[in-house]
Amino acid sequence: MAAELDFERPIHELEKKIAELKSFMEEKDIDLTDEIQRLEEKLSRLENSTYSEMKPWDRVQIARHAERPTTLDYISYLFTDFIELHGDRLFGDDEAIVGGVAFYKGLPVTVIGHQRGKDTKENLRRNFGMPHPEGYRKALRLMKQAEKFNRPIICFIDTKGAYPGKAAEERGQSEAIARNLVEMAGLTVPVICIVIGEGGSGGALALGVGNYVHMLENSTYSVISPEGAAAILWKDASLAKKAAESMRITAPDLKELGIIDEIIEEVKGGAHKDPKRQAEEIDSVLESSLNNLLSMSQDELIEQRYEKYKNIGQFGFVNDSIVVK
């Protein structure tokens, strides 16, 4: 059973009441059709108002939903003949990032993405989707391989951030992320990035330098988590809801700021409600983006990527100093 989110509680209570009435009607052979129909109409209105007026913190909750589809879920729906490749050829294999080669509508592509678990055991194995440096080096190895064989690259972003542990720092976490940023900026093949859950800090950006960056409607993309921002700004992580509202981390905000290219509409209530239909929504945007990029030359791809990131933000002068607003 799906976990209940705070803002969805009235919806679930009404759904439960409708289910109880239907069960009672069958058991007692009493006609409650009119009452059930009235409640179902009320439920439809409640769902429409709830999901059309979500606050940033509501979207954060959906982005973190335990049953939200992962990279491997979308790979199974969108691609064929996926072959996962392992290891960075330097240290080991990091299961917090998955990647390999596949076919997309008959076209060979390289697919890479963060991968978290669906339960405690898998989360421990995948380090809760927080990569070590070998994960980013594996991703870069696959990107360079894709460039060698002229395969488009598709990245799925879904991480709270890069793992901040001592071992990760000792093995060069910051260097691995920085190298990915530099190398991705100069790739000569199309790169499409899609934020499917949480996009946290440099851990997300290390797979996020692309010709197109798209976001699912209820995903988030930010330099720090709302809890982390609240702890820094107000010395109180419990003010995360307030921080989420001021950080502008949701897809509509980032689209307005020009940081992402397109918002991919989610099924009502979030992608976890119907992963297959959500994959169809992604498929439409992915196909369109890929067709646009495949018509470009290598130099045009690099130039388009450069212009995209150069134009993010508004530049101005304050006291003879350049600032970004």
Automatic annotation (TrEMBL):
- On whether Coiled coil is a keyword of this UniProt record, the answer is yes
Give every CoA carboxyltransferase C-terminal domain span: 38-292
Q: Which reaction does it catalyse?
A: N(6)-carboxybiotinyl-L-lysyl-[protein] + acetyl-CoA = N(6)-biotinyl-L-lysyl-[protein] + malonyl-CoA
Has keyword Hydrolase? no
* One cellular component (GO) term of this entry: acetyl-CoA carboxylase complex
UniProt-listed SUPFAM superfamilies = ClpP/crotonase
Localization, per the record, is:
Cytoplasm
The name under which this protein is listed is Acetyl-coenzyme A carboxylase carboxyl transferase subunit alpha
